[in-house]
Amino acid sequence: MLDEKISRSLVMLDSFDNVAVARTSISPGAALKCTDGEFLSVDSIPAGHKVAVAHIAQGASVFKYGQIIGQAIADISPGQHVHSHNLAMVDVHADYAPCSQIPEPPTAIEDKTFQGYVRGNDKVGTRNYLAVISTVNCSASVAKFIAQRFPAEELAKYPNVDGVIAMKHEAGCGMQFGGDAHHTLNRLMAGIANHPNVGGFLLVGLGCETGAMGYLLKQQNLIQIEGVIGTDGPGPLVLSMQDEGGTLRTVEAGIAQVSKMLPKVNAIERQTVSARHLSVGLECGGSDGNSGVTANPALGIASDRIVACGGTAILSETSEVYGAEHLLTRRAVSPDVAAKLIERIEWWKNYVAMFGAQLDNNPSPGNKAGGLTTIAEKSLGAVAKAGSTALVDVYQYAEPVAAQGLVFMDTPGYDPASVTGMVAGGANIICFTTGRGSCFGCKPTPSIKIATNTPMYERMSADMDVNAGTVLEGESIVSAGERIFDEILEVASGKKTKSEQQGIGDEEFVPWLVGPTL
Amino acid sequence: MLDEKISRSLVMLDSFDNVAVARTSISPGAALKCTDGEFLSVDSIPAGHKVAVAHIAQGASVFKYGQIIGQAIADISPGQHVHSHNLAMVDVHADYAPCSQIPEPPTAIEDKTFQGYVRGNDKVGTRNYLAVISTVNCSASVAKFIAQRFPAEELAKYPNVDGVIAMKHEAGCGMQFGGDAHHTLNRLMAGIANHPNVGGFLLVGLGCETGAMGYLLKQQNLIQIEGVIGTDGPGPLVLSMQDEGGTLRTVEAGIAQVSKMLPKVNAIERQTVSARHLSVGLECGGSDGNSGVTANPALGIASDRIVACGGTAILSETSEVYGAEHLLTRRAVSPDVAAKLIERIEWWKNYVAMFGAQLDNNPSPGNKAGGLTTIAEKSLGAVAKAGSTALVDVYQYAEPVAAQGLVFMDTPGYDPASVTGMVAGGANIICFTTGRGSCFGCKPTPSIKIATNTPMYERMSADMDVNAGTVLEGESIVSAGERIFDEILEVASGKKTKSEQQGIGDEEFVPWLVGPTL
Lengths: 518, 518
Ligand SMILES: [Ca+2]
Ligand SMILES: [Ca+2]
Ligand SMILES: [Ca+2]
Ligand SMILES: [Ca+2]
Ligand SMILES: [Ca+2]
Hints:
The structure is a homodimer. By secondary structure, the first copy, chain A, is of the alpha/beta class. Chain A contains 15 helices and 23 strands. In chain A, the strands form 6 sheets. In chain A, strands 19-20-18-17-21-22-23 form a 7-stranded parallel β-sheet, with helices on both faces. In chain A, strands 1-2-5-8 form a 4-stranded antiparallel β-sheet, with no helix packed on it. The radius of gyration of chain A is 24 Å and the shape is globular. Bound molecules: calcium ion (5 copies). Chains A, B: One of its GO terms (biological process) is D-galacturonate catabolic process.
């Protein structure tokens, strides 16, 4: 648990830490205070950089986030600047030590609720969209044309419908039939069709694509308007442009089908449900030096609350977790879960090696200037989003997430690809921290954007939902985290995020498919 | 040159051939006629299948398209069905024999013209778009919002402007800085900015992406409104969302910039220019058994005309040419050009091997049922689009195409990725043959769709521009090819293609980027 009583000029990320982070630049001789007492700054400490809050003998471990980020390569006194000159990762070999540090379950939170759309399968939506899903790029324009015929004005008489959306992408053919890319895409398509935020769906394809609809329907066992109460049978589910006779006829047929589905999708109303139905995808994009100090740890507090409610928090971005994976394996609830994560890390090493590259999550020159010293420290800043609970399962990209608790999904760090995987896995809320200022939104899931610093929050206020830059001005991380948790509950109940207000989210569906484009 | 005097029930693709293709199914005993005389059908020949028109001794070569498609594995008499039972590729090892069969240059055609938009650099556009180019997925929505503010009604006062288009895609970050994917994407972005069909452009990015705009501008030496006559200097060219302060402010700034550019882009008028300014990208998608018999050979005639005019024809789709590449190396104008093609074929073998796959262009069961016997025959059907002239150069994906004559660009067969590469390379017309019925369109280049069969042409008449299925009903391939050539000139002069009429082309910009997504 974080200490609330530290000096306003320092952020201490864990009470076990022997370093703290300078909120603003600190001059030599400034009076500092932490849990262990008062002391004076010895060096000039730039904002975002680390200062020792205890004696650290040469060879001893340096702790931040309650975790080892490296070893002192010189004796360090309280008030001294801690960076590359006196801190290094001496032993970079990770000891996975599976299940060696499984946290106690958090104290259950029973009373938190939101207003959600209850589906037939114990899933609950935070939105109620009708999705026109394009199975291949060749039908992307047709899916868009169908959705465009149902603008907000047209939907005024369906107050429980959040919109008719086209889920379109660049893939679906030019791939090996039955190969990895094909199966991943099918999982993704099914994840959207079955998504708790999707009240009804229509699949549109060209007809001759490798990603054939017949195979998709059979492999994923898709049925019509899954979760819509009162549907009168499976009915027509798919449109093939080649069968319908081209663009115009398919658009007309799609408009007719959507019109028929709309009253059914509208028949569902929000009702009070337990917060255990929240499945929150955690993302960072456009990070800055504050990400690991403000927004990510604050989001970690919110993640812990979600898990305490019985909900699900999804960490992802394997390439950015790299270097801190041993901390997740130690928190894994079983050797099997740890092994799944290690297998994914090994897969990534091979994946990038195929292209003659290697996974490199080392702090960049910009990171170093911002105060990050070691790979573990950088990765911990990303993992901080996930809070402090046990890791209960590991999922492949876009795999349906069934577990309650903290889980990991294997995705790239690239924002739209990562979020697309978590959304396809069932995330009904996305929390997205950003320092430089990403304007990301996605459909069908609302994306809450959390600013790491106040200047960016103010400059981009029409795109940012929560300001965690307040941590640099004295707010505790716990307090910022509680605000994020409150915002999650409000957004889940229908409050529109900034990116929803802006209409963003139709272009950001980006499947990550590994395999040759043929 | 093709023979015009053959029987109406057979298509003979080259006068040197010893097989012809059945236009419709032929019963045993039917009277057939070819250049060498009359004979009777011996077997039942399904439509699209081959029938011998001469004696072929066991071990002798079987010729189709004037090329060897395999060897007879039994003695074959005129009128006999030629397929897997009596034809096989005995020696699959290709003899590249570079430059061994360089065709004579075609008789020059001097008098063909079209009405084009002349740019400052000897390039001529067939359309005059203003492009809002998104450098990364994070700015895709903003680029779209800017373009959406300029619908057709709004552009009525700018009759020389074909539209304001958003060029958006799924990539631009999560890639290695300076790696292959990054360089290819930069080449692509520059290819659109400099495209002859683009009268003015605006680049929009987020700000923190790997595909940084500063690097793009410098590496590709981009200048503002390239090709617009009367521009008053380079001026502001790029918008960064993080600099502008988010979505809304960037959209407003973009609208202001586009408004300022529109009169300048509108100031250019079509004028009469030589057909040598045509650069025609050749594509097939949704092929059927007729593709290699009707539309592709007919498009080959049109390609020969384009080259005779001094224009450029671009063959691509490396994965579908595989198996016939030795025919292109023999037609290469220099050993260097042949070597470039061979290098690309070897690259592809390694590319697919990385994923544990191999290039497999063998006829599928469906192909075999349709009458295709060998890999050479199948590939020749694809290469037939390129006509009979010499191969003058080979280009990397999205590389600017400078040569006049027939060239090859390395692309996947996947339609949107292949066409995106040719368009970025400067293609100002796309000719797209289809049998199953693709509704493909792209921007900023018009796509002429050529049906391989009449039933599909009629069923999808709102999407098809030219019917080459008439070849199965008695029209000669040369005549069908002349019709395609005429259509190219009309479309180049401003006639709208079917996909332009339908508004297709905003979702089909699909960069092919090789490298890990990080
Ligand atoms: Ca997309
Ligand atoms: Ca559903
Ligand atoms: Ca990310
Ligand atoms: Ca695209
Ligand atoms: Ca193709």
